[in-house]
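#structure-requests
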Amino acid sequence: MLTVRTEHLINLALEEDTGLGDITSRAIFPSSHRSRAIIDAKQDLVVCGLEIAARVFCQADPAIKVRLLARDGDRVKKGAKVLRLAGPTASILTAERTALNFLQRLSGIATQARRYADAVKGTGVRIVDTRKTTPGWRALEKYAVRTGGCFNHRSSLGEQVLIKDNHIAAAGSLTRAVKLCRTAAPHGSKIEVEAKTPAEVQEACRAGADIILLDNMTPAQVRAAVKLIAGRAQVEVSGGVKFETLRSYALPGVNLISIGALTHSVAAADLSLDLKPGRKVGRDRWARRE
């Protein structure tokens, strides 16, 4: 995930936090002061964002040496060490918060995604994310969703037609909205339509929708809608689905369940950096402590 966009985000984040320097660390530690550090997990989690965290440290100071002790997607236990550092003490401390912000956010999403993926294991239903992402972070957050074992819905408005209630209201009817999109969309594009009622489900089927999104329905209503669709379109369930009710929506005939909570309200995973200073060998000179 070290794309041009990711590099830009790293630079923005470092500039935001360190654009005026780190007056605390630079006041305490001379440039010759060296330390080692470990980032470890303070909870069971699915780790994600290690290469990005490593890049933050190296961008802050190329003299920092980084070694990854895990891989993105690994399930790690509380206390597991995931990244090791060595280098100038002030530089490590300057980059610490920015690196952890990336690592904690992405690991939080991956951990959440793993919980949801495990909850529907064996049903054949895919859990997918939404566009409810942090502005500018979408590619990273969707990468974290995949890392945790769930799947991505469209990443932008240009990837797939999705006709929602406001499109239908402004177009005049669901059927007219589908017809216009079918005419204008690139060849082979799938047409997805949001439906809130049995009447809209039937109209979407008649209009030739490829995917029907059942919005804010109960499990019983979803079951009835699946019977109406009768295999004529793929079925996505969205809206009002919580982790506690997830399994009740993973019904035969349902292909996808989209969950905004995979990204929009995830708690950061608990990881921290523990620093071990080097030993002093002379005036303002430090060596690595073995």
